[in-house]
Amino acid sequence: MSEIETILSPQVPAPAGHYSQAVAYKDLVFVSGQLAPRPDGSPTAGEPFAVQARQALDNLLAVLAAAGCGPADVLKVTAYLAGAAHWPDFNTIYAEVFGADKPARTVVPVPELHHGYLIEIEAVAVRRQTD
């Protein structure tokens, strides 16, 4: 029976709460919701949505990379946006980041997010066997 593996990327600030950046079980990787702090921990809260969205997606990709995954390995994304008004900008930035890859996705408008951020994004990915 496989063990649950904790994934930690040094390119993303360490979790401040009781959770892991991601966990893997067998070939599945579950990435916790990523806000948009920079790698050095400085916040992007208060900056434009586009800056925060790109940083949150960069954080997500860094955690995925630490697990041995990339955008093509993502099965499902859930994005929480502080207000539906950010949805068009999110779509544009998300399409730039994921390119031809189109994982299943849910976008949830919420009234607010922790620390004043405008976006939080989580994902489920698969680690493919290499022969």
UniProtKB/TrEMBL annotation:
Pfam families hit by this protein? Ribonuc_L-PSP (PF01042)
Q: Which UniProt keywords apply?
A: Hydrolase
What does the record give under GO molecular function? hydrolase activity
Task: State whether keyword Coiled coil applies.
Answer: no
Q: Which domain of life is it from?
A: Bacteria
Q: Does the keyword Hydrolase apply?
A: yes
The record's EC number reads 3.5.-.-
Sorted alphabetically, which CDD domains does this protein's record hold?
YjgF_YER057c_UK114_family
Q: What is this protein called?
A: RidA family protein
User: Which EC class is the enzyme in?
Assistant: hydrolase
- Coiled-coil ranges (or none): none
Native organism: Bosea eneae
